[in-house]
Amino acid sequence: MVRLAELIFDVGLHDGEDTAYYLASGYDVVAIEANPAKCEAAAQRFADELAAGRLEIVNVAIAEAPGVAEFWVSSRSEWSSLDRANASKLGATAALVTVPTITFGELLSRHRTPVFVKLDVEGADSLCVRELSASELPPAYVSFEWSVSFEWSDDQTAANIDVLAGAGYGGFKFLRQNDFREITPRNLGRHDLIRAAIASFPAGSIPFRILRGLYHHPRRIAGQTFARGTSGPLPWQLPGRWWSAAEVKAVCSQTLQERPKVAPLQDWFDIHATRTSV
């Protein structure tokens, strides 16, 4: 009997760097991406994995109902979204395409249970969290994006954490995705002081750029250095303890209060959750 590799959902394929890492690590992947051009490029890049049945690329947008929708392809491709305002923020331009939509619950029901679901779909992470937590066999691990650089809501983040906690996710980590360093109740004050020192210089100035480069210094995790813009290590590769929902919500709230200091740094955060014993 052939043993199936464990499955990972890469929700927000984009350039395929996360999918490439998951495949290289021995996992099968279902990659979801609304941008047709990104799907075509991935189909060429991963032709062998597609032929071997290790990868499925699903060209859809996640929405509240199946159908078709207007999707805005941003000149900053990572901001492409069903929300035109998100795709065109900070002066970016956005081109309109029409894409099929699917509910995340339906997508989950078509596949075996993944061990990990990575969520990075501009504006739809919360929708995915709600439907994922309601599934009969939720994954052991899930991650979703939170950013203080733009108009993201702390209430939305807290709600996502509460939904996951209610679905049996008992452990959480709050990672700065610029360099995959964890922000915890214990080191939060130190990070606040460092951010304040960097933000005391004008954004774009030489001291600002030098100090930000030192602050966002990449490190190796599980023998791998991850490029900026990727989702980074698998959740079970992350060092350190898992925190409770209350603890990680407190860290998120404090980080939001520090927003004037954080925003110039363009920090990008992910929250990881686990259902396994912590």
List the helices and strands and how they pair.
Layout: E1 7-11, H1 17-24, E2 28-32, H2 36-45, H3 47-51, E3 55-58, E4 61-62, E5 67-74, H4 84-87, E6 94-102, H5 104-109, E7 116-119, H6 125-133, E8 141-147, H7 154-166, E9 171-176, E10 181-182, H8 188-199, H9 206-215, E11 220-221, E12 224-225, H10 245-257, H11 259-262, E13 268-274
Parallel strand pairs: 1-2, 1-7, 2-3, 4-6, 7-8
Antiparallel strand pairs: 5-6, 8-13, 9-10, 9-13, 11-12
Helix pairs in contact: 6-7, 7-10, 8-9
Q: Can you walk through the features of this model?
A:
With 278 residues, the protein is α/β, with parallel strands linked by helices. It has a single domain, classed as Rossmann fold, CATH 3.40.50. It is built from eleven helices and 13 strands. It has helices at residues 17-24, 36-45, 47-51, 84-87, 104-109, 125-133, 154-166, 188-199, 206-215, 245-257, 259-262; strands at 7-11, 28-32, 55-58, 61-62, 67-74, 94-102, 116-119, 141-147, 171-176, 181-182, 220-221, 224-225, 268-274. The strands form three sheets. It has an eight-stranded mixed sheet, with helices on both faces. Strands 4-6-5 form a three-stranded mixed sheet. Strands 11-12 form a two-stranded antiparallel sheet. Helix 6 links the parallel strand 7 and strand 8. Helix 6 (125-133) runs parallel beside helix 7. The longest helix has 13 residues, at 154-166. It is globular.
